[in-house]
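Q: Could you fold this chain for me?
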Amino acid sequence: MNKIHFNRFFGFFSCALLLTLLLTACHSSKTTQTQEAFFTWEDSYQRHVELKEAPQRIVSISPAITEVMFLVGAQDKLVGISDFCKYPPETEKIKKVGGMHDINFEVLLSLHPDVVLIGSMISQQDVDAIEKMGIPVICIVEESSLEGMAEMMEVIGRITQCEEKGNAEAEKWREKISELKANAPAPKDRKCVYYVVGFGDGGDFTAPKDTHIQEIIELAGARNAGDSLTGWNISREYLFKTNPDVILIRNEDKDAFVSRYPYTLLEAVKAGRVYGIESGWIDVVSLRNMQAVEYVREICEDDEGR
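A: Sure. Below is the predicted structure, expressed as structure tokens.
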């Protein structure tokens, strides 16, 4: 091969090699850009959220979410929780980042979370503040029904790489609800249960229809005294006209209620059918709602034997 031919061959080879390298680089760049994210979801606030990788450090600012993380076996990924996340007892050992409306952003940032999971009580302002710190936020609203907890189990299972456990627990939860509904007594045989949300000089309040508290009472095989109400306030006239068979009230409020006029005139108070209940079982949507269902069911069954 003479010198001229060699130079032409070498130039052609160099161009071909350069073109190959450029195509490979472009292909690699495209592959990187289109790489699938670990988790994508339209969250409860209609926000498109995306996690590039599986989070290993999670902060939960929702008691319900915290409980579910323990349920699916992802508690080791919890590096921070809200002041209101008090169940299960093991939460005492986890760093607190403040309340629902007074998040300690300095503490939150110091924990270097990969994601913050929030419920319905966090303001948009706080969500924006967290995201400005470069921390993804996913809103998983505590649904207004017990059935909504099943979806929460599934979503948290996916986020924490405990999908199999999350799906299994969700299925068990749905089966339990279906079983309770199937075995519920006929409407005419149901006890009327009044849950005291508030009482006294500030007015009387109870759970209206379409609330998770009504669902708890109905799954227990009873009827909610406030099932015809659209708001939480209730008149004394309505209360006495309803004349509930059973009264439920937070443990800490029971003594004050049963000794205060005019509640002392209620038939359930006279007959000793006022029962204290753990507020964490009933006031918010959580896994412990099922404990409330069983408790109310037992109360109503015992009352049958009186």
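A (continued): Residues 2-33 have pLDDT under 50 and may be disordered.
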